[in-house]
Amino acid sequence: MVEYNVNLEGKTVLVTGAAGFIGSNLVKRLFYEVKNIHIIGIDSITDYYDVNIKYERLKEIKRCLTVIVDQKSEMDENGVESGFYQGQNGSSWTFVHASIADKEAVDKIFTENNISVVVNLAAQAGVRYSITNPDAYIQSNLIGFYNILEACRHHEVEHLVYASSSSVYGSNKKVPYSTDDKVDNPVSLYAATKKSNELMAHAYSKLYNIPSTGLRFFTVYGPAGRPDMAYFGFTNKLVKGETIKIFNYGNCKRDFTFVDDIVEGVVRIMQHAPEKQNGEDGLPIPPYKVYNIGNNHPENLLDFVTTLQEELVRAGVLSNDFDFEAHKELVPMQPGDVPVTYADTTPLEQDFGFKPSTSLRKGLRRFAEWYAQYYNN
User: What is the CATH number of domain 12-220+257-295+342-357?
Assistant: First the structure.
């Protein structure tokens, strides 16, 4: 077990992608658990999926402050409320509506604030979308991450934590996937940008002694998640009476990881920055680590769909007599997809005493209940 060397109390933390699925859940968790914490969130709020879900996440973050004693906010030309909110318990929340690809916006945040920890979750997500709209991935995932690295270089931070992805493993035949595996064969541009993030972070760690930790997330799901993810898209289609397509004829396996488990891992890892030390050449040994955060239990896609349907019926999203078989279509694998994802989480367990453990049924039940409430079914 590693010892924590980063104390979050009283610190200023920057969370990029704060209106996103993982980012918003992380911010809420930090407000609930850490005293006198100052969190700055930045998000471009793209319309890649329904922005109303993102706005709702931002509202939930403000509610975490319970009683707001000071507020300096304004609406921008897009109707997004940005600004500063001071809570009664001494914690504060600042939201900046901007893209991390905007170097001026990123530099302004670092110049005006003493950032201790950065959690970079901003990214253009999605494998299939990267085939049709590659420019979005270059802007956010490469240029944006470069801007974050440069800011960390010029404004010394205690720890940079950033999101990578299980997609970096490509079509690896060896399972479970280990962070020691060679990952030089991405099968999508999205995967290539995430592997590039790891390489860039390693170079900056070596050159400028920036402690950084990359996190390879495995198929994250849960309430208020991303509508482009399979479980959410399937639900939307079934509610409309449309047919869902199950790729690779159902012969896919995914290491579905509940969002609370992802956040638990992130919070623990934030508090331990890789140690700085010099090598025999007198230069820094890169204070750099990469971890998998996955459920370590891949589920067959057909079993996943069956569980999802059962929980949607239980939550009243679908009727008891819904004809599932009439709304399923087995289709070939899509470009950029892989047949299996399976995380080896041994290093995470050894270093942080943690392993994601939320069962698929429990996680999908939470999602189905949220869906029923959010869409008033």
Answer: 3.40.50.720
**Is beta strand 38-43 parallel, antiparallel or unpaired with respect to 68-75?**
unpaired
Nearest alpha carbon to residue 126 among 244, 21, 15, 12: 21
Residue 336 scores a pLDDT above 70: no
Burial code (b: 16+ CB inside 10 Å, e: under 16) for 304-324 equals bbebbbbbbbebebbeeeeeb
Dihedral (Cα; 164, 29, 56, 95), 10-degree rounding? -80
Length of the chain: 377
**Placement of tokens 């879900």 in the chain:** 53
Number of neighbouring beta carbons within 10 Å of residue 247: 16
Between helix 230-239 and helix 360-374 the angle, nearest 10°, is 50
Answer whether the bond into residue 176 is a cis peptide, omega within 30°: yes
Q: Which percentage of the chain shows pLDDT scores above 70?
A: 98
Amino acid (1-letter code) at residue 323: D
Give the count of beta carbons closer than 10 Å to the beta carbon of residue 295.
26
Position 78 confidence tier, pLDDT thresholds 50, 70, 90? low
Query: Is there a contact between 303 and 280 (Cβ–Cβ < 8 Å)?
Result: no
Question: What CA–CA distance (Å, rounded) separates 76 from 79?
Answer: 5
**Global pTM exceeds 0.90:** yes
What tokens appear for 6 in the block?
A: 């980063």
Burial environment of residue 61 by CB neighbours within 10 A (0 to 12, 13 to 18, 19 or more): buried
Give the whole-angstrom CA distance, residue 362 versus residue 311.
Answer: 9
Instruction: Using the structure block, give the residue that is written with the tokens 């507020």.
Output: 71
Point out the residues that are catalytic: 190
